[in-house]
Amino acid sequence: MYAKHEKIPMKDFGSEIRATMDIDHLLNKAVLLLDLQETSMEEIFAKIIHEMDIQEPEFTSEQVRSVLFTQDSGNQFHILSRTVQSICTTGTVGGTYDYDQSWICALCMLNTVQHRHVAIARLSHPTNLGRTMQDLRFIIIVIAPSRAKGTKTALETTRTFATLFADMDIRQRLVMAQTVDQFRSTLLSAAKELAIDQNQWRERKTSIHFSQAKEQLFGPGKWYLFRGLSNDFFRRIKYYSSDYLDGLRGSKTIQKLFSSIVFLYFACLLPAIAFGVLNDDNTNGSINVRKVITAQALGGIFFAIFGGQPMIILLTTVPLAIYIKGELGYDFFAMYACVGLWCQFFLILYASTDMCSLMKLATRSAEEMFSLFIAIAFTVESMRALHI
């Protein structure tokens, strides 16, 4: 006998509106049988299928048995072809699990039916019907058309009812139901309560994820304006003097300091000269090499003193050199000053709100896209110069 096991997820009544609609629609015409006295699988399923046959003329009992049970050369085995049950893990080693043997959903598809049909039976006492059904109390049968929408198949409908019966509290309430109407109303109210619980759980999960993401980005503790700036200040103030004095202590520190100065001098000077020439040409002399070197030197000194550490290197970048142009007839220095003031405003805004913490989310792709932009921009500028 070949058997295939597959794990399927439970229905989310909070986000899947179809689940609640199916419960409301199918329960109104479902066959509900309470406290069956039969004790064998043949008698129990014959009773349920007979009641469905009486209520629904779209199929016969023989047709349902032929697809509900496993067959071989026309002989039926007392084994259900397709079933759904809940499981629980019994250990972490080997992935072992155990069945919830108090209920079972049997599903099948028929070509002769046009609509879905559901039957639910509650046995009068727990009954042993074989493997994985040794303590059975509830039996659900779902019959669906062979050709149905993806949300109305036999498996999807079975998932809807299986999600309800997988809840121990709901099963206990169904055991206590005295009448068919009370049984039906219990299932309807349980579906609505489950939708509310799942929505609340999703909201709590979202809130927890948001709190964790906020703590990961901005750190623990209460947030307030300039929190990151003040934390940086108090964290670095005790090392401020050593940042300068450590470069003068030791036998070989002067040699290392001098070599670093020479290296950084040319590393900063050569790009300043190159971009200064480009700015001189684009701005008609408003910004030349001398001004670029002077501005870069003053900015570097200011940042070295007030930036928290002396190793802050300022360079004129390619995008700035490309976009700085004297065009459209505006006063260049006035427009350039406005751009600087707006940059200063955004920098203060970012520093006061800890927006710089978002840089933790930046990956190497941002650097690669920036490099690609520089390459394309200079290629376009060179092609434009050749065309002219």
Automatic annotation (TrEMBL):
Pfam families listed in its UniProt record: HCO3_cotransp
Keywords of the record: Cell membrane, Ion transport, Membrane, Transmembrane, Transmembrane helix, Transport
Residues annotated as transmembrane: 257-278, 298-323, 330-349
Signal peptide coordinates: none
Domain of life, per lineage: Eukaryota
UniProt keyword Transport, yes or no: yes
Keyword Transmembrane helix: yes
Residues annotated as domain Bicarbonate transporter-like transmembrane: 225-385
One cellular-component annotation, GO: basolateral plasma membrane
Membrane topology field: Multi-pass membrane protein
Entry-linked InterPro entries: HCO3_transpt-like_TM_dom (IPR011531), HCO3_transpt_euk (IPR003020), PTrfase/Anion_transptr (IPR016152)
Main subcellular location of this protein, as a coarse class: membrane
GO terms for MF: solute:inorganic anion antiporter activity
GO BP, one annotated term: monoatomic anion transport
Subcellular location: Cell membrane
Family the UniProt entry places it in: Belongs to the anion exchanger (TC 2.A.31) family.
Protein name from the UniProt record: HCO3_cotransp domain-containing protein
Lineage of the organism: Eukaryota, Metazoa, Ecdysozoa, Nematoda, Chromadorea
